[in-house]
Write a structure and sequence with these properties.
Two copies of one chain form a homodimer. Chain A has 289 residues and is of the alpha/beta class. Helix content of chain A is 16%, strand content 24%. The first copy, chain A, is built from seven helices and 14 strands. The first copy, chain A, has helices spanning 22-29, 60-65, 90-93, 111-118, 217-220, 236-242, 268-275, and strands at residues 2-7, 41-45, 51-54, 80-84, 105-109, 133-137, 143-145, 151-156, 176-181, 186-190, 203-209, 248-254, 278-280, 286-288. In chain A, the strands form two sheets. Chain A has a seven-stranded mixed sheet. Chain A has a seven-stranded mixed sheet with strand order 7-8-9-10-11-12-13. In chain A, β7 and β8 (151-156) form a beta hairpin. Chain A starts with a strand and ends with a strand. At the A-B interface, α2 of A face α2 of B.
């Protein structure tokens, strides 16, 4: 099983277009030890030929071009044989509308996530011909064949419906984590989680929600009014302890907000998570399991 | 008046994610004399402080980061004081949903373009608080103040409704060109046009539809079934002659499709348009008028 981190930032990316916080100013000016990051997405393969893309960020075009394994091998072609969505947030789905050049797509999602996407009138751009999109249903706790030598199981993870569906009745299918692997190796990909309840199974590699470091990060910076858990993200400070007992050879935070001090290679917060056996994802990071 | 080309490619960009044509293969491999391009957008200012962004491409985040004049100058800030849309195509509008981090936006568009956008359920992500988006109406042939020392007049240009509204009754407001300037200088920005009927007024600089070079470009490459004009784009081969009589100090093709031979700096098609006094836009191109 090979994994490529296509993007490792939370919604808005790092730096964020309208943000002048210390991290964003510093990474633009080159005065902090941090690298820019695009928005959260992974690519996974077992044979190096057929790739599953986990989430589809607004920056998907640049992410594909930065990774030759995802380039086309014919006049019209893509090695991306499956796209798997963890929720309906625009930073995880908007990129689908950048993949609309008459290319057949196979998208795995829960019914709730599918409904939130297909309700947009923009979805008609993915219905240019019959069969342009083949939907495959993710049923909670059921293993599904991704068609590329890998299987996936989605589990409900504490979260929220996407902003554009705010006010709807919440569903356990709004936000899932993905357990993906072959007969020998397995990764867990949980980029958004308000708690760690779904996490217990041993995995080779765990990618987990690293959006915020502390509960009141945005409030203390004067950049927001809501605590982390109110936005359905358990802060790194809490998840480090809560996940200490979960068996994983590698543990990697991803979906990192631009304000998070773990973005800085030399911050005390980074040192603390390194001591605890964790890593921080970066764009272009690759793993072989 | 200063102009920055933020993006110069047609929908899909150059190279296009699923395209293995000669141009796309060559630019990825570095074996042709061409540079990659993001999707069509311009930024215009008269004072260097307040910028109008013309169209908002899916790649807007990277386009902003690549141009320091558009970076924030406070913890939450943007120098982009106006966004002006020429039509409702997703390659011109999808980027609005990447500018949703609680930043007030002022968007200038015709009623038809506004309706096509706000009809999407995704638009709720731009309605997080009252006044997040201020819409300013573009009425055909009426001059409007952009609020940054520049004025804009939209004119109807032969085009089509966006793909996601296909089948609706067409409107003269579906596709416009923009004439923008101050008391002394004026540019025209017409990135999509099925004919040249709207073009006659002398301008300092004309940006014009360079999507395709020939009428059957996609058909001859085996990459599509429709001629250029059926997709509402007059080919460069025809517009060069048709626009010969329009007075413009600089003439620049933009919105260039990945298949177009004018992308190659050393192609005969490029040499022919250079001889005719035209240029080809590239990302990062800047003009001072």
């Amino acid at each position: 099983v090979r994994v490529r981190v296509l993007g490792s930032a939370a919604g808005g990316g790092f730096p964020q277009w309208n943000c002048g916080c210390g991290n964003c100013l510093g990474v633009r000016a080159g005065t902090v030890r941090a690298v820019p990051r695009t928005q959260d997405s992974l690519a996974v393969t077992s044979d190096g030929e057929r790739w599953a893309m986990l989430n589809c960020s607004p920056e998907v075009r640049a992410q594909i071009e930065a990774f030759p394994s995802l380039h086309p091998r014919a006049p019209r072609h893509t090695p991306i044989t499956a796209i798997v969505l963890t929720n309906g947030d625009l930073d995880h789905c908007l990129g689908l509308f950048s993949l609309r050049e008459s290319q057949p797509l196979t998208i795995f999602a829960t019914d709730a996530v599918r409904a939130g996407l297909t309700e947009s009138i923009f979805y008609r751009t993915l219905e240019r011909f019959p069969g342009q999109v083949t939907w495959k249903r993710l049923v909670l706790d059921e293993e599904v064949d991704l068609g590329n030598g890998l299987r996936v199981r989605a589990r409900a993870v504490a979260g929220k419906p996407p902003l554009h569906l705010a006010g709807r009745a919440p569903s356990a299918e709004d936000n899932v984590g993905l357990w993906i692997g072959d007969q020998r190796h397995r990764i867990a990909y949980v980029p958004g989680a308000a708690d760690v309840a779904a996490l217990s199974e041993p995995v080779d590699c765990l990618f987990f929600d690293g959006t915020f470091h502390s509960e009141n990060e945005l409030i203390e910076l004067g950049l927001g009014t809501r605590p982390a858990r109110d936005m359905a993200h358990i802060p790194v400070g809490a998840s480090l302890a809560a996940l200490a007992g979960v068996a994983a050879r590698r543990r990697i935070f991803t979906h990192i907000n631009n304000t998070n001090p773990i973005l800085l290679d030399d911050s005390p917060e980074r040192a603390a998570l390194t001591s605890a056996g964790w890593e921080v994802a970066f764009d272009g990071m690759e793993l072989s399991l």
